[in-house]
Amino acid sequence: METNVSDSTTEKRIRKVIKRGDNTVIVTKGEDNSLIPLDPTMKVKVIPLGGMCEIGKNTWVIECDKDIVLIDGGLAFPSDAMPGVEIVLPDISYLIQNKNRIKGLVITHGHEDHIGGIVPMLRQFDIPVIYGPSLAIGLLEEKLKEAQLQDRTTLTKGRPRQTFKIGSFAFTYVRNTHSIADSFCLIIHTPAGKIVHSGDFKFDFTPVDGEFFDVYSLAQVAEEGALLLISDSTNVERDGYTPSERSVYRRLEEEFNKAPGRIIVTTFASQVHRIRQILDICVKAERKVAILGRSMLLLATISRELGLMKFPDGLLINLEDVKKLPDEKIVILTTGSQGEPLSALTRMAYDEHKQISIQPKDTIIISATPIPGNERAVANVVNALSAKGAMVIYGRESGVHVSGHACKEEQRLLLNIVKPKYFLPAHGEYRMLVMHGNLGVECGVDPKNVFIMENGDVLELCNSTAQLNGQVPAGIIMVDSTRVGDVDENILEQRHKLGSEGLLSITVTIANGKILTEPSIEAKGLVLAQEDKTHGQFMVDAKKVTLSCLTECLQSNGKNLDSLKEKVKSELITLIHKELKREPLLQIVILESQ
Predict the structure, then answer these.
(1) Residue 2: closest CA among 514, 61, 15, 592
(2) 288 and 429 share one domain
(3) Both 510 and 416 in a single domain?
(4) Rounded Cα–Cα distance for residues 321 and 299 (Å)
(5) Staple partner for 420: which of 132, 226, 530, 542, CB 3.0–4.6 Å?
(6) What's the structural domain count of the chain?
(7) Strands of 203-355, DSSP E
(8) CB 227 within 8 A of CB 420
(9) What is the DSSP letter of 405?
(10) 437 and 547 assigned to the same domain
């Protein structure tokens, strides 16, 4: 049903209200404060399930009465301490327990650390409605089709300054500037007051797409009284301002103009503005572009459909056509900016790509900075590319990349615009949250009103007060290929031991309380003296210990296989510590013959 509601105020504003079912009201012009009236008896809870004391996994719970609304649902990438793990998700057991209370989800922007965890959520429970910017919804729609989960939610595109109601809350989208198009702050209208969620942001005063940060809407909230500001802390350790995305254009153009042969450029697949600038330069330089990487090609396609990126037909070519053109007419746009093992750039660096081989005249531009934990992987790729004679342009000093996150002065600016009563630093490691909290105090927030929280902590807002009140389950779920949640701490410990300490495997067969075969011992990854690898002293001692322990246990009527394995393992650990000073993974196999 659609109705027009007239406003008799001096401004004579006309609001168009669209009601959708019982849960959602959209206000397309202005802002209706009566949607969510203040109620001093209502408690509003703000709960981070990810993104606190870490980078990535950004997932928030806003709760009031019986209603839960989520803000973002992200993933994180594994650290070096997680061998074999592909992605990391937040523990959503609290949401599974309360799935019937979930009314919807609101997306701030389309980066994977904000939308990459939504599909795993939908495998566990329905989400009645998901609001998001057009680009984020386009990307999520493809994910849902691939996972065959379209029927688990309703996707709705949001617009700047649009207000929509979900359950006990209303949300207003406020345009900000970030490293991806269609990025928003949120004004969250609650019974306790207005909460501002910054999303990921920086103040870009010369944005590539001409879409400026909507400071006016946030200043309006300050005039009315902002109860709480939740703000991005990522770059708080850097002084000054983050450079404009537009500043990268000049440096990229310089490198393009002096490149003698092919140009291979890698950046984040979600960097719409960066990719847009690269394509613009390619048009000027009369170079054709081949895009490698499904995620990058998908984003370019969706961005073009939404009008966020424009380029002429014929600019993009298939990879098979690269060899048909002169090298100086070719640009290869690829994934791999983080040194990912299976990415196209990494495979090129190690001669594992079937179609592209690195040549000495190639210019390779890494238009990104490593995510914390990826520095070594990126350095290895740069070394491998350089060893092939390619010119590699990378690093902060090269000027071919700028961050999408606010530095200290921009964070100070946001604090002074919003003027919150309470302040919650988010999206950063612990030291960043503390530093950002101190910055809030410098900007006039009462020190008692700054909250440094961890994932699972509950911030309770009520009657213009705020306090930490309890915790909900929070943690990480590690994903190994498609096996969500099967990778636990024990498996990680085993992988670490295999990688650093090696494996000692012992197999023996018993029957009717007697040992039938001599123990078979195999060592993998253990540094042994040459003679110890077959019949040396260590192998002899290991067999003696195994036989002695088993004989003693079997004579004392010990027939439980698990108990036998543990006793043999205990004796072998003592021997290994004494003779090898190592802690390998032990595999004890006791076969029982009938």
Answers:
(1) 15
(2) no
(3) no
(4) 22
(5) 226
(6) 3
(7) 226-232, 263-266, 288-292, 330-334
(8) yes
(9) S
(10) no
Output the domain CATH number for residue 289.
3.40.50.10710
The reply to whether 44 and 175 lie within a common domain is: yes
Q: What is the dihedral of CA 419, 425, 428, 434, to 10 degrees?
A: 110
If pLDDT is split at 50, 70 and 90, which confidence band does 487 have?
low
Burial 184-211 (b: 16+ CB within 10 A, else e): bbbbbbbbbbbbbbbbbbbbbeebbbeb
Residues 112 and 75: beta-carbon distance below 8 Å: yes
Question: Are 284 and 329 in a shared domain?
Answer: yes
Amino acid letter, 274: R
Residues 76 and 223 in one domain: yes
180 Cβ neighbours under 8 A, 6+ residues apart:
109, 110, 111, 135, 270, 271, 272, 273, 404
Distances from the Cα of 403 to the Cα of 60, 201, 234, 406, angstroms: 23, 10, 10, 8
Residue 301: inside a domain, yes or no? yes
- Asked if residue 345 belongs to a domain, the reply is yes
Tokens of 329: 């007419």
Rounded CA-CA distance 550/556 in Å is: 10
Based on the domain organization, do 392 and 418 belong to the same domain?
A: no
Q: Rounded to whole angstroms, how far apart are CA atoms 572 and 550?
A: 12
Q: Per mean pLDDT, which range of 69-73, 215-219, 355-359, 505-509 is the poorest?
A: 505-509
User: CB under 8 Å to 172, separation ≥6 — which residues?
Assistant: 31, 161, 162, 163, 186, 187, 189, 217
Whether 16 shows a pLDDT value over 80: the answer reads no
Q: Which residues contact 557 (CB under 8 A, 6 or more apart)?
A: 513
Q: Which amino acid is at 96?
A: I
For residue 151, the Cα-to-chain-centroid distance in whole angstroms is: 25
Based on the domain organization, do 389 and 415 belong to the same domain?
A: no
Q: Which of 31, 65, 416 is nearest to 189 (CA)?
A: 31
Question: Which of 58-67, 201-210, 260-269, 580-589 bottoms out in mean pLDDT, i.e. has the lowest?
Answer: 580-589
Domain range enclosing 298? 247-397
The rounded distance, in Å, linking the Cα atoms of 493 and 84 is 12
With H, G, I as helix, E, B as strand and everything else as coil, classify residue 89: strand
For the beta carbon of residue 322, count every other beta carbon within 10 angstroms: 19
In a domain, 4, yes or no: no
Structure confidence by residue, pLDDT tens digits, 325-383: 999 999 999 988 988 888 899 999 999 998 999 999 999 999 998 877 778 889 999 99
Give the residue carrying structure tokens 């909250």. Answer: 451
Tokens of 63: 């709760």
pLDDT in tens, 115-147: 999 999 999 999 999 999 999 999 999 999 999
- Establish if 565 belongs to a structural domain: yes
